[in-house]
Amino acid sequence: MPQAAKKQLPDLPITRSNAIPLETLVYYRKKGLTYEEVAKQCGCTKANVIQRMHYHGLADNSLDHYVNHRVDVLRYWQRKILDSITSDDLKKANFSSKIMGYGILYDKERLETGQSTGNIAVIIDHIESLQRQVAR
């Protein structure tokens, strides 16, 4: 790797090869470095980098695939979770869990339909009211 490119990468603190933050490995791989180059940057072996990446399911192109298809992956798991909830599950849930679930789903519905999901609409109305008062 050219020396100039190495200078652009941040110096991330590393204590032991097994203590290298996973995000450091991911960062360097996303920059296009090979496993060998990542190992050199991190002061560990190529095998260590490969092993850690594989252990976390980030080897080969799986990280890029996940990043490029994250929305679809999240939608898939959302559907799996919703499909796994039965009427019996809802009957067993305590009142506060039901209310919290309802509130979250309500906020997500509003988000999906382009509506306000917080009290920001009230604040905006108040600001607009003050602006009208000042204009008079």
Comma- or semicolon-separated keywords:
136 residues, mainly alpha, 2 domains, 9 helices, disordered N terminus
List the helices and strands and how they pair.
Blueprint: H1 3-8, H2 22-30, H3 35-42, H4 46-55, H5 62-68, H6 70-84, H7 87-92, H8 95-112, H9 120-135
Helix pairs in contact: 2-3, 3-4
Can you summarize this structure?
The chain has 136 residues and is mainly alpha-helical. It has helices at 3-8, 22-30, 35-42, 46-55, 62-68, 70-84, 87-92, 95-112, 120-135.
Explained architecture:
The protein has 136 residues and is mainly α. The chain folds into two domains: 3-60, Arc Repressor Mutant, subunit A (Orthogonal Bundle); 85-135, no CATH class. It is built from nine helices and no strands. The chain has helices at residues 3-8, 22-30, 35-42, 46-55, 62-68, 70-84, 87-92, 95-112, 120-135. Helix 2 crosses helix 3 and helix 3 crosses helix 4 (46-55). The chain is flat, with a radius of gyration of 24 Å. It starts with a helix and ends with a helix. The model is unreliable at 1-15 (pLDDT under 50).
Give the total of domains.
Answer: 2
Euclidean distance between termini CA atoms:
66 Å
Which shape, going by the Cα principal axes? flat
- CATH architecture level-2 label of the largest domain: Orthogonal Bundle
Overall strand count: 0
Which structural category fits the helices and strands? mainly alpha
Q: Are there runs of 5+ residues with pLDDT below 50, and where?
A: 1-15
What's the CATH first level of the largest domain? Mainly Alpha
Helix content: 55-70%
Mean model confidence by pLDDT: 79
In CATH, the topology of the largest domain is named: Arc Repressor Mutant, subunit A
Radius of gyration: 24 Å
How much strand?
A: under 5%
H/E element string? HHHHHHHHH
Q: How many distinct helices?
A: 9
Largest sheet: none
